[in-house]
């Protein structure tokens, strides 16, 4: 069983889910009712995820908790590539596909982005269309726009030193 907690953010309520292994999900909206942690370890991961989100929204570099990412080998590769996109920068779906040595897989990158279980901290919002259009986002295009503007306003503070 996982621990569920809610987090009020500038982009709305988020639901955090963690196991003993780490953070496994952030979802937009309240979703299921909060559920107390079943262990001290899952509580630590919930607390660490909250701290990372608080830092992110305050314009500070978030310290990521352990992430539990489960997906296909391609999805895992995409999600790792997302973690490498610097704060305040974007990449196109095609650029990300080329980074993965899969030119022509822009659409598949988009599908992997859509399947990302930990938005914001695994920054799928930093991937945009080739012409600079925002494309889609699980939290809605306005949330994606807000996150990108937030990072642009805080980029000197968010970049790791």
Q: Reading side by side through the largest sheet, how are the strands ordered?
A: 1-2-3
Approximately how much beta-strand content do the residues carry? Answer: 5-15%
Shape: globular
Rg over CA atoms, rounded to whole Å, is 15 Å
Number of strands: 5
Q: Could you say what the CATH topology of the largest domain is called? A: Arc Repressor Mutant, subunit A
Write down the overall mean pLDDT: 91
CATH class call of the largest domain: Mainly Alpha
How many domain units? Answer: 2
Ordered list of secondary-structure elements with their pairings:
Elements: E1 3-9, E2 12-18, E3 23-28, H1 40-58, H2 73-83, E4 91-92, H3 93-99, H4 106-115, E5 127-128, H5 141-158
Parallel strand pairs: 4-5
Antiparallel strand pairs: 1-2, 2-3
Helix pairs in contact: 2-4, 3-4
Could you explain how this protein is built, in words?
The chain is 40% helix and 15% strand. α2 (73-83) packs across α4 (106-115) and α3 (93-99) crosses α4. The strands form 2 sheets. Strands 1-2-3 form a 3-stranded antiparallel beta sheet, covered by helices on one side. Strands 4-5 form a two-stranded parallel sheet. It folds into 2 domains: 3-58, Double Stranded RNA Binding Domain; 73-158, Orthogonal Bundle (Arc Repressor Mutant, subunit A), CATH 1.10.10. The mean pLDDT is 91. The protein contains 5 helices and 5 strands; from the N terminus they run βββααβααβα. The chain is an alpha+beta fold. A hairpin with a 4-residue loop joins β2 (12-18) and β3 (23-28).
């Amino acid at each position: 069983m996982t621990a569920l907690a809610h987090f009020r953010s500038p982009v709305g309520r988020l639901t955090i889910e963690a196991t003993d292994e780490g953070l496994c999900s952030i979802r937009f909206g309240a979703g299921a009712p909060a559920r107390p942690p079943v262990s001290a370890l899952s509580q630590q991961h919930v607390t660490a995820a909250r701290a990372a989100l608080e830092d992110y929204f305050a314009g500070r570099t978030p310290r990521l908790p352990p992430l539990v990412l489960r997906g296909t080998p391609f999805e895992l590769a995409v999600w790792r590539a997302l973690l490498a996109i610097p704060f305040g920068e974007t990449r196109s779906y095609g650029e990300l596909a080329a980074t993965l040595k899969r030119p022509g897989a822009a659409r598949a990158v988009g599908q992997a982005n859509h399947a990302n279980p930990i938005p914001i901290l695994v920054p799928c919002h930093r991937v945009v269309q080739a012409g600079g259009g925002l494309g889609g986002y699980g939290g809605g295009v306005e949330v994606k726009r807000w996150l990108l503007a937030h990072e642009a306003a805080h980029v000197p503070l968010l970049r790791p030193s």
